[in-house]
Specification:
Blueprint lengths: L1 H4 L3 H23 L9 H20 L8 H27 L1
């Protein structure tokens, strides 16, 4: 992202979008098969949101006046989903 920032906001949105898509797909690949373990629904939701948000970032890079405002709105809920998932998985591990 730092290198892309030297090229402007559209490049940052494309890199951030690609990262969001890839990380979201990884989350889904890991979480969906493990959903019966408990604590995976926040990870599944986060992965799905990441894929959609990433596609949105890539698409918005081509807009007339691209903005990074949507990237902030993506990062905060993603962190919250990770925290919820970690807490639920920790609780499930203690019960097992």
């Amino acid at each position: 992202v730092g290198i892309a920032a030297t090229s402007g906001i559209p490049a940052v949105l494309r890199v951030w979008g690609a990262w969001a898509i890839v990380s979201g797909l990884v989350q889904l690949i890991v979480a969906v098969p493990r959903r019966k373990m408990g604590g995976q629904w926040p990870m599944i939701l986060s992965g799905g949101i990441s894929v959609l948000a990433g596609a949105s970032f890539v698409a918005s890079a081509g807009a007339d006046d691209p903005s990074l405002a949507s990237a902030v709105g993506y990062a905060i809920p993603g962190g919250i989903f990770f925290l919820i998932s970690a807490l639920r998985l920790g609780r499930a591990a203690k019960e097992a």
